[in-house]
Amino acid sequence: MSAHSSENGDKSGMAQQAGSPLPGGATKKWRAGVLGATGLVGQRLVKLLAGHPWFELTEVAASERSSGRSYGEAVRWHLDGPIPEVARSLIVKSLDPSLDCDFVFSALDSSVAGGAEDDFARAGYPVVSNSKNHRMDPDVPLLIPEVNAAHLDAIPAQQKNRGYDGGFMVTNPNCSTAGLVLVLKPLADAFGLEKVFVVTLQAVSGAGYPGVASMDIHANVIPFISGEEEKMESEPQKLLGRWDGARFIDAGLGLSAHCNRVPVLEGHLECISVSLKKIACLKEVREALRNFEVSAELRSLPSAIRHPVMLLDGDDRPQPRRDVHAGNGMAAVVGRVRECPLLDIKLTLLSHNLVRGAAGAALLNAELLAARGFLNRRVSAEEAQLAAR
Ligand code: NAP
């Protein structure tokens, strides 16, 4: 799809590039586990992993409510289409870090994610997390591959600090931060950033299932999402900052966020005003956004899209219902780029909270880890049994 097209892409969620060869001479797919596989984000991950060219889903884990049952029985499936066959008969495990896989995704509720992710990393598993718990830890990369792939250099320091042997944690940002920072990155590179003011209109699926009660959100707007403004004001500082070899240095941006929950199912809309360090006209700003293109390394990742910022021309776009699946849910869809009487420019952004802001983001992070040689094979249960004979 061109950067100018205005109708959306694959409604099923996200289609990886067909025929992406395994990286680094690998001959077998990596075995992936999903912690929190029964939740909204976990289900997206399960769906995206079915048929993935590099990863194969071998384990699912969730709470005591679900563990011990087959995935097909335990999950309340929310996505279009059936539960992928590869997942249906898997037995849901508990959070014991002894799963038969090479690495895990975590889509756990934040009440348990912090401890569980640490347990898995300590047991030697790479952990690719969606949860907020470790995002701002001083030695844990908060990663958007198109923005700060160099932050992966912090992994050896994290392993040393924590005494992890082979395991580590990498996180992706909050769902409303992900789209915001993708749009800020080309502006930061071209003009430098001084201040950002953002007002969000966030979908109900951002709160997990069952999320906000229908009596509260129907025909209404709730001008508060617990902890969201704090995350939006702190995470971009780390993402747009740098790793200096020992610690992350913040970007030092002036940032203010207002977060609102609106009766939309999927897709967070954001109204953003920005002041730039270098004076730029609207044409230059539009060109910087439109020309933002990922590196050759990222283009080789199955879930990456070449132009992660998609600029729409219509005065009334982007809209959640019409544009949320653009770029297979991985695009930051931008419209209404115009002058701002208070700061320099303003624009409207839409991004898919469950794909770009969660499952798709984690998958892209794992693909970058695989491409850079951070994922190793663990001995499978079957191989261990054979070796013991
Ligand atoms: P969700 O629908 O509420 O799912 C939560 C998952 O955690 C379920 O699989 C649940 O298992 C599991 N879980 C809950 N308590 C547990 C326990 N005590 N032990 C083991 N497993 C437990 O939430 P979600 O929206 O998918 O979000 C998952 C994580 O991603 C959260 O940390 C969230 O903040 C983050 N996130 C969400 C979004 C979004 O747009 N929704 C975006 C970015 C990040 P059971 O089904 O067995 O209870």
Structure description:
This protein is an alpha/beta fold and about 400 residues long. It has two domains: about 5-175 and about 360-389, 3-Layer(aba) Sandwich (Rossmann fold); about 175-355, 2-Layer Sandwich (Dihydrodipicolinate Reductase, domain 2). About 30% of the residues lie in helices and about 20% in strands. The chain has 14 helices and 14 strands. It has helices at about 40-50, 70-75, 85-90, 110-120, 145-150, 155-160, 175-190, 215, 230-240, 280-290, 295-300, 320-325, 355-370, 380-389, and strands spanning about 30-35, 55-60, 90-95, 105, 125-130, 170, 195-200, 240-245, 250, 255-260, 270-275, 310, 330-340, 345-350. The strands form three sheets. A six-stranded parallel β-sheet has the order 3-2-1-4-5-6, sandwiched between helices. A hairpin with a 5-residue loop joins strand 13 (about 330-340) and strand 14. Helix 1 (about 40-50) packs across helix 13, helix 7 (about 175-190) packs parallel to helix 9 (about 230-240) and helix 7 packs across helix 13. The chain is globular, with a radius of gyration of 20 Å. Residues about 1-15 have low confidence and may be disordered. The chain binds NADP nicotinamide-adenine-dinucleotide phosphate (NAP). The site of NADP nicotinamide-adenine-dinucleotide phosphate has 30 residues, from helix 1, helix 4 and helix 13. NADP nicotinamide-adenine-dinucleotide phosphate binds near residues 113, 131, 354 and 357.
